[in-house]
Amino acid sequence: MRMRANRKLNNTLSCDVLVIGGGAAGVAAATAAGRTGARVVLLERYGFLGGLATAAQVGTICGLYLRDTAGAEATPVGGGFAQEFARRLQRATDAKPIRVTDTGLWVLPCDPPAFAAVADAMVSESENVTLILHATVAETQVEGSRLTRVGALVWNEPLHFRPQTVVDCTGEATAAALAGARAENGAADQAPALVFVLVNVDPALAQRGLLEVRRELRRAVAGGTLPALCERLSLVPGTGADNRMALKLSLLPAQPDRALWRQITDWEREARALVEPLCRFLIENVVSCRQAHLGSVAPQLGVRSGRRILGRARLADEDVLGARKSPRGIARGGWPMERWTNRPGPEMTCFAERDYYEIPLDCLRPVELDNVWVAGRCLSATTGAMTSARVIGTALATGWAAGTAAAFQASARSLEEAVTAIRRSMNGGAPDLTQAD
Fold first, then answer.
1. Average of pLDDT values for 250-279?
2. What is the C-alpha to C-alpha distance for residues 214 and 191, in angstroms, rounded to an integer?
3. I want to staple 401 with a disulfide (CB 3.0 to 4.6 A). Which of 64, 330, 332, 368 is the partner?
4. Strand-strand pairing, 129-132 and 40-43
């Protein structure tokens, strides 16, 4: 009988800051912590960075600019890492901000592969950040009010981490919830969407706002040729000029009494099953699409809402709509409340033009855990407030804030000092992230 020797692996890594999730918030958090000199580990479950901006092929970055119906150019909602990232992305793609609606909303068109490449470059430029791809967090260990150990499967190998602080940027508060933080399930708050790309489409179709497409879909649904869900098709802003048109098919919100893992599976299968007949219908019935063909389908559904923590502070609807500021504000939100429900299009609720609200630091802190931070769409917010704060531009800002605060905490620097540094960056200045002598 052949005996196989046991492999002895060093499967425990220590670090100052463990960032979980390599989407917009996670990239910002890891970069911020790395620039302080902290030893950072960034875990990402896919083989690339960018989160939903990449995997769901989101196509636009919202929340970078103030709403403005009159200005000729976009005005940044704040300075700091979000604008640094946007400038890098613009240089990589020659993209420029565009105003997309009569409400004065500005967005930055975003090529998904370019988003991933810029994210990778910015993380790589910090020698203090160790990136680990194909990592799925599965367990945690808590001592008192501190998360002391995180276990993950990394390419089917168990790996454990002993961090001083943790930043949860998973979009589902995965690590925080596993460690015992209270959270609420927002999966039923917003409808998800699947993005796909039609190639060789007449660019004038985008300029006309898909008028022919909407007319033909309405007829097809009324005649029973296509299911009603197909009327929830919309254009990804900023696409169409190069004969490649990105379209998003919004599904219906989750059923509150249905297990989320089952709902996600059903969503993914339902959306992909509709893409082929929908594209075939457009090619056969819309003149502008007669020469088109399906170019790509996003590998993941774009989920707009999920689990979020109950934090030491909570961003409320009235904070957003009243454009409220906070002396401990660490990120600015400039995007309106954007609800995707049972209606074909979004319900937009705007606050004052050229204004913004601020997200207090304690919205990033679970009540139960002293050394855990969250960012992105799992921060502490009411349902309505999250429909604004979830967008990529704001996630970049909250990620930067969480990474900075976690690094300061890991090196025993005060959180008030962290707030000062974050606000200096937010106001357009250069933050002092170095360790004081």
1. 90
2. 20
3. 330
4. parallel
